[in-house]
From TrEMBL:
Physiological role: Catalyzes the conversion of acetate into acetyl-CoA (AcCoA), an essential intermediate at the junction of anabolic and catabolic pathways. AcsA undergoes a two-step reaction. In the first half reaction, AcsA combines acetate with ATP to form acetyl-adenylate (AcAMP) intermediate. In the second half reaction, it can then transfer the acetyl group from AcAMP to the sulfhydryl group of CoA, forming the product AcCoA.
Name of this protein: Acetyl-coenzyme A synthetase
Binding positions for ATP per the UniProt entry: 386-388, 410-415, 499, 514
Post-translational note: Acetylated. Deacetylation by the SIR2-homolog deacetylase activates the enzyme.
Source organism: Micromonospora echinofusca
InterPro entries xrefs: Ac_CoA_lig, ACAS_N, AMP-bd_C, AMP-bd_C_sf, AMP-dep_synth/lig_dom, ANL_N_sf
Length: 650
């Protein structure tokens, strides 16, 4: 990585925070110095945001690295912190969730409601024999019961494992088996793309293959016919009949809260384990600091699915620990029309929107007339997560969603980090389009070279974390060796995130994508992110994915897949002309070495359910191989389209 072309993109635009927001911001510039002066004392103060049944004796036990213990000896209940204490403080009538189903049905759920539903679910799970330490798999659509199920597990100390609704029976059964889940919570189905999409048949198949499941709890959402067996229980006949009285028992700060599987490159997914006290401390703090969350007045909306870590930390735990009011939406952004997201912002007066670059680029493709058709004046802060956000997508977001004035927080983090690690602070940081900027207070991230030496400003290398942080993963479920091997053995004493990054002349961090995706062209390391951003900076391109394909002359050659913007003419000769123009545009922006060998114009790109481009599959196409594992693909028909285009095309 040391050979990375330096500062390929000469991004010079910079936007200071709006003065009014800066003046009232939850967190000011002094937070950095405060945390630098005494990192552990800083996190100890953040832990005081929570209600503890018993204080900790030690902030951090790092005597056996990389196995960390935070807030040693402390005891607390996560659901108590997210619900009971707000109700006890007289906030029971505050709306916790404005929920909207894809067909347009709505529910308004207050903190008192959410508390009651969670207590009932906790009692029902206890009735099914679930006790502290047991694992419960959750396979639900984006309905309030998903949050209730998670909170009910937390309340009784059961460890939840949420699996994306939409993953195959294979993916679900291997996750159930790995965690030996005793109960599965699911629904008959959910609504996606304008029609019911069944879940229960997948659960039936997965459960029949894994021996551990004793009970399946089923929410009725679509009303479609489902097969039934002795181990199945309707949610409305068990949970909704259970007592709403339940006393939350405190658990150890290191009690396992949840397992969340990430797919990784090898076949067996990694069960990332998060625990209680440190996780809730950092998710609560970052929601407060990065989103400047004002629970009395804000209406917050994170568009993530609950099956992604973003849904765990920034729909369920972080916002609810802060007592926030939020929007939750079941369906896809183009059902029944392409303005659905903006219609929801308009209807609920959303003030803070947290979404992914994939959605922003999709909106670019659909054109700015669509957001322009709605009143977005309630918005005051925008966030991005999941992938590097290309500078032009960032500018489009600011211009067409943020009225050319709202701050954008580009938040870098991972399932493994549990909470946001690198991000602007909205009232402090002068942001640069495409940069996640600086590690948050209390976080020590760095960019290092092959030898693990910190690179100077202007240099590129590997992103690492030098010090343990409260919401760090504690291990890979059932596989301590793999935990050490995967994250802690590349560089001595540092956590290796697997991402490439560079520091600009001011020391600000730019993420360059997964190091596995870096291309080696004629001896030069070129990041996929930079070539993609160069393509997206062309006025006719909304979205692009770039891969390195084996090439007899250059080692690897750059192959690009580009989605034209709504307005671009791409038929016949016009398409050929655009491709030629794009190749030259990249060469001009980044240098001739980065000129793609081949560019394909496509309508869609293969993505995971959390919106990440699956470059691995595109590499298979570019190298004429049969496709690898597609179980985490959001829409499998996309690959057929792209493969046939590739064969028929050039
Ligand atoms: C939260 C989440 C983690 C990987 C991570 C990186 C990429 C996430 C990013 C970003 C650049 C950002 N990533 N946020 N890259 N800028 N703001 O996405 O978790 O699904 O585990 O993915 O996503 O490559 O390593 P997860």
């Amino acid at each position: 990585m040391s050979e990375t072309l330096e500062n390929l993109l000469k991004e010079t635009r910079q936007f200071p925070p709006p003065a009014a927001l800066a003046a009232e911001a939850n967190v000011k510039a002094d937070a950095y110095a405060e945390a630098d002066a005494d990192r552990l004392a800083f996190w100890e103060r953040q832990a005081r945001r929570l209600a503890w049944a018993q204080d900790w004796e030690q902030v951090l036990d790092w005597s056996n690295p990389p196995f960390a213990k935070w807030f040693v000896g402390g005891r607390l209940n996560v659901a108590y912190n997210c619900l009971d204490r707000h109700v006890e403080a007289g906030l029971g009538d505050r709306v916790a969730i404005h929920w909207e189903g894809e067909p347009g049905d709505t529910r308004t759920i207050t903190y008192a409601d959410l508390h009651r539903m969670t207590c009932q679910a906790a009692n029902a799970l206890t009735g099914l024999g679930v006790t502290a330490g047991d694992r419960v798999a959750i396979y639900l659509p984006m309905i309030p019961e998903a949050a209730v199920a998670m909170l009910a597990c937390a309340r009784i100390g059961a460890t939840h494992s949420v699996v994306f609704g939409g993953f195959s029976a294979d993916a679900l059964s291997s996750r159930i088996a790995d965690a030996s889940a005793k109960v599965v919570i699911t629904a008959d189905g959910g609504f996606r793309r304008g029609k019911p999409s069944a879940l229960k048949p997948t659960v039936d198949e997965a459960v029949s293959r894994s021996g551990s499941v004793e009970h399946v709890l089923v929410v009725r959402r679509t009303g479609e016919e489902v097969a039934w067996s002795d181990r199945d229980h309707w949610w409305h006949e068990t949970v909704e009949q259970a007592s709403p009285e339940h006393t939350a028992e405190p658990f150890d700060a290191e009690h396992p809260l949840f397992i969340l599987y990430t797919s990784g490159t090898t076949a067996k997914p990694k069960g990332i384990l998060h625990t209680t006290g440190g996780y809730l401390t950092q998710t609560a703090y970052t929601a407060h600091a990065v989103f400047d969350l004002k629970p009395e007045t804000d209406v917050y909306w994170c568009t993530a699915d609950i099956g992604w870590v973003t849904g765990h930390s920034y729909i369920v735990y972080g916002p609810l620990a802060n007592g926030a009011t939020q929007v939750m939406y079941e369906g896809t952004p183009d059902t029944p029309h392409k303005g659905r997201v903006w219609e929801i912002v308009d209807r609920y007066g959303v003030t803070i929107l947290y979404t992914a670059p994939t959605l922003i680029r999709t909106m670019m493709k659909w054109g700015e007339d669509i957001p322009a058709g709605f009143d977005l004046s309630s918005l005051r802060l925008l966030g991005s997560v999941g992938e590097p956000i290309n500078p032009e997508a960032w500018m489009w977001y600011r211009q067409h969603v943020g009225r050319g004035e709202l701050p954008i927080v580009d938040t870098w983090w991972q399932t493994e980090t549990g909470a946001i690690m690198i991000s602007p602070l909205p009232g402090v940081t002068a942001t640069k389009p495409g940069s996640a900027m600086t590690p948050l207070p209390g976080i020590s991230a760095d960019v290092v070279d092959d030898q693990g030496q910190s690179v100077p400003n202007g240099g590129g290398g590997y992103l690492v974390l030098r010090e343990p942080w409260p919401s760090m993963l504690r291990t890979i479920w059932g596989d301590d060796n793999r935990f050490v091997e995967t994250y802690w053995s590349r560089f001595d004493g540092m956590y290796f995130a697997g991402d490439g990054a560079k520091k600009d002349a001011d020391g600000h961090v730019w993420l360059l994508g997964r190091v596995d995706d870096v291309m080696l062209v004629s001896g030069h390391n070129i990041s996929t992110t930079e070539v993609e951003s160069a393509l997206v900076s062309h006025p006719s391109v909304a979205e692009a994915a770039v891969v390195g394909a084996t090439d007899p002359t250059t080692g690897q050659a750059i192959v690009a897949f580009a989605i034209p913007r709504g307005t671009a003419d791409v038929s016949g000769d016009a398409g050929e002309a655009l491709i030629a123009d794009l190749r030259n545009h990249v060469a001009k922006t980044l240098g001739p070495i980065a000129k793609p060998r081949q560019i394909m114009l496509v309508a869609e790109l293969p993505k995971t359910r959390s919106g990440k481009i699956m470059r691995r599959l595109l590499r298979d196409v570019a190298e004429n191989r049969s496709l690898g594992d597609v179980t985490t693909l959001q829409d499998s028909s996309v690959m057929e389209l792209i493969s046939s285009g590739m064969k028929g095309g050039k």
